[in-house]
Design a protein that fits this description.
Oligomer: single chain
Structural class: mainly alpha
Number of strands: 2
Strand order of the largest sheet: 1-2
Low-confidence stretches: none
Strand content: 5-15%
Order of helices and strands: HEHEHHH
Helix content: 40-55%
Largest sheet: 2 strands, parallel
Mean pLDDT: 85
Shape: globular
Radius of gyration: 17 Å
């Protein structure tokens, strides 16, 4: 997680707000250390249970709808189908924006 945040800080100038769940990895000593050394990084936790605020829910809902009628024969085939669809979502700004917009987060899109 720390590596990812440092990468974001190198790629994005100005203040960076990252929304996180309440996982233990997001409160590790290395994260606390990074926050103490970086004034432009702001970590904001989601409430303990608030799926309506989590854009990930849009991704999972899209995957469930897209893959609902599939019938992979093997675990490997299932993983291939999931991987392909996740890559398709990741490559589509429209799908990603839709997942963010469907949440009850305040809008930050123009």
């Amino acid at each position: 997680m720390t590596f990812f945040l440092r990468h974001l800080l190198r790629q994005i100038s100005g203040h960076l707000i990252v929304l996180l769940d309440n996982g233990k990895t997001h409160r590790s000593d290395s994260i606390v250390d990074l926050l103490s050394r970086t004034s432009r990084l702001h970590l904001e936790p989601f409430p303990p249970y608030a799926p309506e605020l989590n854009p990930d829910e849009g991704v999972w809902n899209h995957l469930k709808k897209t893959l609902a009628n599939g019938r992979p024969d093997t675990k490997n085939e299932l993983m291939d189908v999931l991987s392909d669809e996740i890559c398709r979502i990741a490559a589509s700004q429209n799908l990603l924006r839709g997942c963010i917009k469907q949440s009850d987060l305040p809008s930050f899109f123009p």
